[in-house]
Specification:
Layout: H1 2-10, H2 16-31, H3 37-51, H4 59-70, H5 72-83, H6 85-109, H7 115-127, E1 129-133, H8 151-167, E2 189-191, E3 196-200, H9 215-232, H10 253-271, E4 274-276, E5 279-280, H11 287-310, H12 322-333, H13 340-349, H14 355-363, H15 367-372
Parallel strand pairs: 1-3
Antiparallel strand pairs: 2-3, 4-5
């Protein structure tokens, strides 16, 4: 991108007038929801083609989205107070510690990694910073002026404010307290260059976390997300960074080669899945997420088993045992429906596999899943032994 941009800037055939048109389009592109209906209609026409949407979002949803994008941490103060609180943070911290312990215990038993690389991996694990729910210190929006008169002016002011905030960072130390998602966001992420995991309060609600659900179900849902993000520190991309976030190869040659062989198995597995119609999953594009799903499930299940052993009196009884509850909780957390147009768009551009295959593809490799439901060789949810994949 940088090379192509440089060539365009130097091209005498592309005049300042061309750049003015392009940059004006980029500004409009960023604020189209604040423009009159005529302009919004053009963007919705594009969305219909790409996603199959039948109607625009209701106005209240657009307003909430705009507030989250432009004043996210101000909005989050009320959101966190209403939905999360200190008890939610404490519960999640306990689960993170349990899954990290499972990772370290599993690391010691890996047959394909040598002692020195295991030691470096453990050091990286111990350095992971966990940000849970909401920031310790709320962001200040001093200097950003908003008024009731103009949605467009507010949107442009917020964009200018963000640019100024970014430019002010130049030459200063990295702010390791900064969040790159707002607390109400239903998502989580691992940041390799800072070796940190962020779990916004938004994802700590049903179907990923439910105070009324059994601990086994919650381990299967949000616990798997925790394990998934930890595993991102050791997937095909994350493994290239050390515990301090530096791009550095800390692997021995034999261990690095063994990892690549196991990752190649995962790529091949997902290359074979049909996402929709004639489109197959791109195993290379989705490799990191698929490796993280496999690792996250294994770690979260091990953490749940350890927890159940320590709290036998608290294991919920019923139609399904704790192991089955774990996997059902995982599957239910990814129940999704997409229009065909959106499904085609996502399989072409998204680094995540379609939810159906995030569940069935990952579970078909796990011995714990086979044992939980008494599956046998040859069953639909059991991959042939020779084809099973396991990285972490």
């Amino acid at each position: 991108f940088a090379k192509e941009l440089e060539a365009l800037v130097k091209d005498p055939a592309i005049t300042p007038a061309h750049w003015n048109d392009y940059l004006a389009l980029k500004v409009v592109d960023g604020v189209f929801e604040a423009l009159p209906k005529q302009y919004r209609g053009e963007y919705f026409t594009l969305a219909q083609v790409l996603t199959g949407a039948k109607a625009e979002l209701p106005r209240w949803k657009k307003c909430v989205r705009a507030a989250d994008q432009q004043l996210g941490e101000a909005l989050a103060v009320a959101y966190v107070e209403k939905t999360f609180g200190e008890d939610g943070k404490k519960t999640t911290q306990e689960m993170v510690r349990a899954v990290e312990a499972a990772f370290e215990n599993n690391l010691e038993k890996l047959p394909w990694m040598d002692a020195d690389t295991k030691k470096a991996a453990a050091e990286k694990l111990h350095k992971i910073a966990n940000k849970i729910g909401y920031p310790d210190k709320w962001r200040s929006y001093d200097g950003l002026k908003v008024a009731r008169a103009s949605f467009l002016k507010n949107t442009l002011a917020a964009a200018s404010f963000e640019v100024a905030q970014d430019l002010a960072k130049i030459g200063k130390p990295v702010d390791r307290t900064e969040w790159h998602m707002t607390p109400p966001t239903v998502n989580a992420y691992y940041n390799a260059s800072q070796n940190e995991i962020v779990f916004p309060a938004g994802i700590l609600q049903p179907p990923f976390f439910d105070k009324g659900a059994s601990t086994a179900v919650n381990f299967g849902a949000i616990g798997m997300v925790v394990g998934h993000e930890i595993t991102h520190g050791f997937d095909d991309k994350g493994r290239q960074f050390d515990g301090d976030g530096n791009l550095r190869d800390w692997w021995s040659e034999p261990s690095g080669k063994a990892f690549l062989e196991r990752a190649a198995c995962v790529k091949s597995q997902y290359d074979g899945y049909v996402a929709i119609d004639d489109l197959k999953i791109n195993g290379a594009l989705t490799l990191g997420e698929n490796v993280a799903d496999l690792g996250g499930l294994k770690l979260a299940h091990a953490a749940m088993r350890a927890w159940a052993a320590d709290h036998p009196e608290a294991v919920a009884a019923g139609r399904y045992n704790a192991n089955q509850q774990f996997f059902l909780g995982y599957a239910q957390s990814w129940c999704s429906m997409y229009r065909p147009e959106m499904a085609r768009l996502r399989v072409t551009t998204d680094t995540h596999s379609p939810p159906y295959w995030r569940v069935n593809g990952a579970l078909s490799n796990l011995s714990a899943f086979r044992e939980a439901f008494n599956c046998r060789e040859g069953d639909k949810m059991v991959r042939p032994a020779a084809d099973r994949c396991e990285v972490w």
